[in-house]
Amino acid sequence: MTLPRISTPWAPARPGAPAYWRPGRVVVKMMLGEAPEKIPSLADVRHRGVNAAKSLDGGVVDRICEHFGGAMSVAHVHAAAAGLQHPGKRSVHFDDREQVFGLARTFRIDMPHTTPLGPLLESLNEVSTVERATPDYVSVAPFEARDVTNPDDVWSTGEMVHAAEALAYEPGDSAVIVAFVDSGVAPDHPELDGRLRSGFDTVELGKSEFALGIQLLGDNANIDHRPIDRWVGHGTACAGIIGAVGKTMMPGLAGDAQLLPMRGLGAARFPGKTQPVGIGATTDLDMAMKMAVDLGAKVINMSFGTDDRTLEPGAPKPHADVVAYALDRGVILVAASGNNGERTLYWPAAYPGVIAVGAVDASGAPTSFSTRGDHVALCAPGERVFTLALQGYQLATGTSFAAPFVTAVAALLVARSERRACPIDGPLVRTLVTEAAQRFASGADAAGCGAGILDASAALRALDTHIDQTLPDDPGQVEDG
Predict the structure, then answer these.
(1) Residue 20 within a domain
(2) Is the Cβ–Cβ distance between 129 and 30 less than 8 Å?
(3) What would the pLDDT profile of 200-229 be if each residue is shown by its tens digit?
(4) In the 8-state DSSP scheme, what is residue 322?
């Protein structure tokens, strides 16, 4: 069997390389009570033909933007949860939590791509009505495709995490929605038949405004209900681990759960490279995250990230508001730890409340590329993982493909807890998967790699034990009165 292999997803070109941002675009979060109304959402501007606003505050913010860039257009980054199903009015009726977490107060301002962002941001961050102003950072997921001809390269990741035993114990629940914010999905893949919900494509990277030599591929401009991955394969690989029906590869570890594909990474080809990569602006990824929450996702897989060392000292960390919003709504968040093999913080994996996942190889030892740190909860298979490609199958390498194993087990734990009428949340999921984790290979350097290797079956049994301990001594006896 010959399979393509993808590797080193979203690792920076070199440690400490500066983060890239989209030219001519800033993200402004206003102070509580200072966000103007009647500014449309990006979803309506891009999908319904609603005109973007030409002004944000009618005052100092506008004057600063006009001074540095001239013409400007403004839109809410996010749609209100109450307005999501009302095209043309998606920025109406933000609730109190959307206000408190800042999602109702976050705007994207587009200006000419030659606008000097450094001095513009310095000036905006001195305005008393502005909580913060940042560039629209870009995350990149570079891959390298290789042919794999040795059948020994295909190893049983399912056996390592005891997948068959877990699925026999708990088959999952089609009412549990698992979202993955990624490069989209190959919707017609036979392994995903009946697994996918509609989802969204939130990618808007423009066409000619990127750095010279970067060729954007496919649909990078329109928000719609077709999160199709035609070029990259990263999201499709994650989807297979979570929810494949099991025709040729092992069944997805989330069992009967439904998958919600959210395309926040577009596709691009970099100078001197032939393999397309995933590339996504922070606003596009955050929009996809919030939409996933508002559409009912209980678990979200985040196989993307930004190295903290690429950010300016003291700069706000990306994805903070949408992560806080999701956690407040009881969503379980799982993220890949990173692929630089060092002790590094990647966002969103490093946020408290997010379950950060590293990678192990077939021997059970942490891989050389797996990013480490005290925030890493545990590891899962992440080297030469047999999963879906855009057409057929591939071997995928990276913590991007370790995280979906944990995401899938989180979905099984949710299904099991609902079957037994006992609520479950992210902290309990983290406790269950870490306390049930298997030991790393003997003698392996596992410092900063978390509690051990995922054991899906043991985690489910630990949940049942936890539920049994919370029940009254005689649950069948009901007191009168």
Answers:
(1) no
(2) yes
(3) 999 988 765 566 577 888 777 667 788 999
(4) H
Run means of pLDDT, 10 residues per run, the chain, 481 residues = 43 50 90 92 82 94 94 94 82 92 96 91 96 88 45 76 98 98 96 95 74 73 82 94 95 97 90 82 95 97 90 88 97 95 94 97 95 97 93 92 97 97 95 98 96 98 95 56 40
pLDDT in tens, 273-325: 777 888 889 999 999 999 999 999 999 999 998 889 888 888 889 999 999 99
List Cβ neighbours of 397 (8 Å cut-off, separation of 6 or more): 5, 6, 7, 8, 369, 382, 383, 384, 385
Is the domain of 155 the same as that of 103? Answer: no
Matching residue, tokens 């009618």: 58
Same domain? For 55 and 193 the reply is no
Residues 117 and 229 in one domain: no
Given 73, 95, 128, the domain boundary residue is 128
Measured torsion, CA atoms of residues 276, 282, 288, 290, in degrees rounded to the nearest 10: 160
Residue 350 phi, psi (nearest 5): -85, -5
Query: pTM for the whole thing?
Result: 0.93
**Can you give the residue range of the structural domain that contains 270?**
3-13+141-467
Identify the residue whose tokens are 């192990």: 360
Domain total in the chain: 2
CA separation, residue 314 to residues 103, 264, 307, 308 (Å): 21, 26, 14, 10
> Do 410 and 446 sit in the same domain of this protein?
yes
Boundary of a domain, candidates 128, 151, 166:
128
Q: What is the DSSP letter of 314?
A: T
Bridge partners of residue 378, in order along the sequence = 357
13, 407, 243, 174: CA torsion to nearest 10? -150
| Residues forming beta bridges with residue 132, ordered by sequence position | 29
Q: How many Å apart are CA 186 and CA 228, to the nearest integer?
A: 6
The answer to the question of residue 481 being in a domain is no
Q: At 245, which helix (H) or strand (E)?
A: none
Same domain, 416 and 275: yes
Token pair belonging to 299? 């678990």
Whether residue 476 lies inside any domain: the answer is no
Angle at alpha carbon of residue 134, lines to 308 and 31, rounded to 5°? 120
Summarize pLDDT for 405-457 with one digit per residue, the tens. 999 999 999 999 999 999 999 999 999 999 999 999 999 999 999 999 999 99
Rounded Cα gap, residues 21 and 279, in angstroms: 11
Q: What is the pLDDT of residue 207?
A: 61
Question: Does residue 134 belong to any structural domain of this protein?
Answer: no
